[in-house]
């Protein structure tokens, strides 16, 4: 008995000269180029997909699938002090820190939106469990 390790590697491309016999419900036994059957197995670009028994869904095409770019700036070099009323060397250090915290908050909200969209897509496809 052969093992999986002994099986030949799958071809990287489908050649139109390769044929397979198929049983067509109307035409009976027919010879079809292998390249015409691959889309039925893999699905056409944008065709509905589903996994693990989930209902197939089509690929969404709206803009919230775009990647997210972080807005937070360079590392701050602020040191604390006991000689100023703000606890920082200057008021501008505190203002810079507040600005960075607000940038981080905006980034977290953007990443959260993207992560929620990813999770929703994975649940809809059946690749992630949607509930406990």
Structure description:
The protein is of the alpha+beta class and 132 residues long. The protein has helices spanning 34-42, 91-125, and strands spanning 19-24, 28-33. A two-stranded antiparallel sheet has the order 1-2. The radius of gyration is 28 Å and the shape is elongated. The mean pLDDT is 74.
Core attributes:
single chain; 132 residues; alpha+beta; two-stranded antiparallel ribbon; 2 helices; 9% strand; elongated
Order of helices and strands: EEHH
User: What is the overall shape?
Assistant: elongated
Q: Average pLDDT across residues?
A: 74
Class from secondary-structure proportions:
alpha+beta
End-to-end Cα distance, whole Å, is 42 Å
Q: Helix segment count?
A: 2
Largest sheet: 2 strands, antiparallel
> Strand order within the widest sheet?
1-2
Radius of gyration, taken over Cα atoms and rounded to an integer in Å = 28 Å
Helical content class = 25-40%
Based on DSSP secondary structure assignment, what is the total number of beta strands?
2
Strand % is: 5-15%
Task: Catalogue the unreliable spans.
Answer: none
């Amino acid at each position: 008995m052969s093992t999986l390790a002994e099986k030949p590697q799958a071809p990287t491309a489908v050649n139109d000269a390769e044929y397979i016999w198929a049983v067509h419900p109307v035409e009976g036994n027919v010879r079809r180029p292998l390249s015409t059957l691959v889309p039925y197995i893999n699905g056409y670009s944008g065709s509905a997909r589903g996994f693990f028994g989930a209902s197939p869904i089509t690929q969404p095409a709206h803009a919230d699938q775009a990647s997210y770019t972080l807005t937070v700036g360079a590392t701050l070099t602020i040191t604390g002090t006991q000689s100023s009323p703000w606890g920082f060397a200057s008021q501008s250090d505190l203002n810079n820190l507040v600005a960075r915290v607000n940038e981080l908050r905006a980034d977290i909200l953007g990443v959260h939106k993207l992560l929620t969209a990813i999770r929703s897509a994975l649940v809809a496809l059946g690749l992630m469990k949607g509930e406990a």
